TrEMBL record:
Gene Ontology BP term (one): proteolysis
Name of the featured protein: Ribosomal-processing cysteine protease Prp
Keywords tagged on the record: Hydrolase, Protease
Family annotation (InterPro entries): Peptidase_Prp
Keyword Protease: yes
One MF annotation (Gene Ontology) recorded for this entry: peptidase activity
Range of residues in the leader sequence: none
Keyword Hydrolase recorded: yes
Length: 109
């Protein structure tokens, strides 16, 4: 099962960490893993490449884990946009869980 953990300080999402394979289908054919990966990649591209934020990205392929972490301090407009992006990602994962409840878990930590 894939687990998506959203790390919060108050209402601020500081980081998201996704780990494990969903197990919906064979590797390379798992639509849940593909959906999670594609949306995590899109969020990373938005934060880093479009917004120009210096996010910290950790990839541990051996343990199937990816973590995106925002800088501690951002300008107000950047903070708002970054939080909107991470909240949208969380909402997407929650909606995905509603359809594939045995294959993805979403947690606020």
């Amino acid at each position: 099962m894939t687990t998506a953990r959203f790390y919060l300080t108050g209402s601020r999402i500081d980081a998201v960490e996704v780990s494990e394979h969903a197990g919906y289908a064979e590797a390379g054919e798992d639509i849940v893993c593909a959906a999670v990966s594609a949306n995590l990649d899109l969020t990373s591209c938005l934060l880093e490449d479009v917004m120009g934020l210096a996010i910290r990205t950790e990839v541990d392929e051996e343990n199937a884990r990816i973590r995106l972490e925002l800088p501690n301090s951002l300008e107000e407009a950047e903070e708002t946009q970054a939080q909107n992006a991470l909240n949208a990602l969380m909402l997407y994962f929650i909606n995905l869980k509603a359809r594939y409840q045995d294959f993805i878990e979403v947690m606020e930590v």
